[in-house]
Amino acid sequence: MALKATVVRAELQVSDMDRHYYATHPLTLAQHPSETGERLMVRLLAFAMHADERLEFGRGLSTDEDPDLWQRDYTGDIERWIEVGQPDEARLRKACARAREVVVLNYGGRAAELWWEKVASALARHDNLVVWDLPHEQVQALTALYGRGLRLTVMIQDGEVRLLEADGSEVAIQPVARMGAQSA
């Protein structure tokens, strides 16, 4: 019998002082049975960092053609393609050919470092690629917020992302620019 996705509902109240973007986003995320809470929370963080009325989640881990998140313009062209984790170089090459901007949120401690060592030289030629590293300890703190119903206030200023829960829990994430951050 196939396992079903877990539905996670989240409400993000985003105040992004860096981009002057302020909005509330009610979100419904489908957590694939093989997806960890850590990965789901990084997807939610990716949404918060790039929040826009046209940003949406891809169809999930079971669909190779879709990114984790993407933003299309009104003509259907892909403005931003977002991947979390360590996608392979061929997937990123294809994404860079299809989208105006490709963003990777690289996390996972030592695995993230090994991935970068393996693909860095091949990815260097892509001018529309941005790679952010998420510090392992901060991702673990973010994962501690995981729940099936989330109400988070997200404040972004000077590149730092602060997530606050109604109970007073707070997590600060400071993404580290690995590649192409001047365009982010």
Task: Explain the overall architecture.
The protein is globular and about 45 Å long. The mean pLDDT is 92. 24% of the residues lie in helices and 39% in strands. The chain is built from 4 helices and 11 strands. Helix 1 crosses helix 4. The termini are far apart. The relative contact order is 0.18. It has helices at residues 37-49, 89-98, 110-123, 136-143; strands at 6-16, 21-31, 55-57, 69-72, 78-84, 99-106, 129-133, 149-157, 160-165, 170-173, 176-179. The protein has 184 residues and is α/β, with parallel strands linked by helices. The strands form 2 sheets. The protein has a 6-stranded mixed sheet with strand order 3-4-5-6-7-11. The protein has a 5-stranded mixed sheet with strand order 2-1-8-9-10.
In spatial order, strands of the major sheet run 3-4-5-6-7-11
What is the 3D form?
A: globular
How many H/I helices?
A: 4
Q: Mean pLDDT, nearest integer?
A: 92
Strand fraction: 35-45%
Radius of gyration over alpha carbons? 16 Å
How do the SSEs run, as a string of H and E? Answer: EEHEEEHEHEHEEEE
Give keywords.
39% strand; globular; alpha/beta; 6-stranded mixed sheet; 4 helices; 5-stranded mixed sheet; 184 residues
Task: Describe what is shown at a glance.
The protein is built from four helices and eleven strands; from the N terminus they run ββαβββαβαβαββββ. It is an alpha/beta fold and 184 residues long.
